[in-house]
Amino acid sequence: MIAGGVIGPLKQREVLIAGRYRGSELVQVGRTVPLSPEQSAALGAVLRKAKRDHPWPDEIGTGRWGGKSGKVALTKVDPVEVVEVSADAALQAGQWRHPLRMVRIRAEMQPEDVATLPDPAVDA
């Protein structure tokens, strides 16, 4: 997955928001369980604040689906870091139904190495 944002300030990351590309659009596909202090520190060493053209909103829902239950600030990061995650197989509308677990940063990979999401118009 591509690291696209975090919940919490960039210096104190709490949850990673993962994305994948659909064409040229970076789409949110899941969020991790709370990061361990070690994972947060490792991400802090590589994540950089996003440029102004980052496609995601400034706030994200607090619920599992990012719904209307409440909002928290989303710290958008430059989507250049790839992370390995552990996830179950349950997907809905291209998003994981259950929280992801961050395994490690994949420094040897680039965002273009991550499989893209299918175009829903083609699958229809």
TrEMBL record:
Source species, domain of life: Bacteria
* Record Gene3D superfamilies: Nucleic acid-binding proteins (2.40.50.140)
Protein name as it appears in the record = DNA ligase (ATP)
Native species: Kribbella orskensis
